[in-house]
Design a protein that fits this description.
Blueprint: H1 3-10, H2 27-41, H3 46-58, H4 61-64, H5 71-90, H6 112-135, H7 140-161, H8 170-187, H9 192-197, H10 207-219
Helix pairs in contact: 1-3, 2-5, 3-6, 5-7, 6-7, 6-8, 7-8, 7-10
């Protein structure tokens, strides 16, 4: 599938007057637009998530991970991907209890497994493309930096949804397990322990980032 067709289906375009009609918009601009669309489409975001999956599958990695020439632009790209992933994960967020003691009924989680499986598919597509780029040696240091930025929220999301819980199904658990396996492969981590702690050979772990995400609940 051509990138132009995907962008047309997503109704995305560049806001720059200097942008050629035949050229895709800057990736950071597009990621920001996708984030806004996801937030605005909840809870009916399943089709949009599927389109984002296709974008990560068929768009070239040179464009998806392009602002690599300047440190400031690369930091902007990392932040844009983290924000988009947060919005994707939010589409499968668990409903909040009214208080800390009253559990929700199973019906409250009815839509979560389908949404979670769709989010897993989109994130798996992104990590597969990113991992292939890293393994190919293209901008390896920057690609590894991006992986370390997106790995903590992805890991927490996957672990949340591969458990046998009221908010999961066999399909969503399989998708979550596949997502975690793709994350490990993309970053060259041997297993979940290696993912969290890293090693002395230069492979960094993400335990600090995971704890930052969990801290609000841990302190609560």
């Amino acid at each position: 599938m051509e990138l132009s067709a995907l962008l047309h289906d997503l109704h995305l375009s560049s806001s720059s007057e200097e942008q050629s009609p035949s050229s895709p918009p800057p990736i950071t601009e597009l990621l920001s637009q996708l984030r806004e669309k996801l937030i605005g489409s909840r809870p009916k975001s399943h089709y949009l998530i599927a389109q984002i999956k296709q974008l990560f599958q068929y768009a070239g990695s040179d464009w998806l991970f392009s602002p690599a020439s300047q440190d400031s632009r690369w930091a902007e790209l990392e932040a844009a991907y983290v924000s988009l992933i947060s919005a994707l994960i939010g589409c499968a967020a668990l409903p909040l209890c009214e208080d800390d003691c009253s559990p929700l009924s199973a019906a409250a989680y009815q839509s979560i497994p389908t949404q979670a499986a769709a989010v897993c598919a989109a994130l798996t597509a992104l990590l597969t493309t990113l991992g292939d780029r890293r393994k190919g040696g293209e901008a390896r240091e920057r690609t590894s930096s991006l992986l370390l930025a997106v790995a903590p929220p992805t890991c927490v999301f996957a672990v949340t949804h591969f458990q046998d819980q009221v908010w999961t199904s066999s399909a969503s658990r399989a998708a979550a397990r596949g997502l975690l396996e793709t994350l490990l492969s993309a970053g060259g981590w041997r297993d979940s322990a290696h993912l969290l702690t890293g090693d002395t050979e230069g492979s960094r772990g993400i335990l600090g980032g995971v704890l930052d995400i969990l801290q609000p609940q841990l302190t609560k």
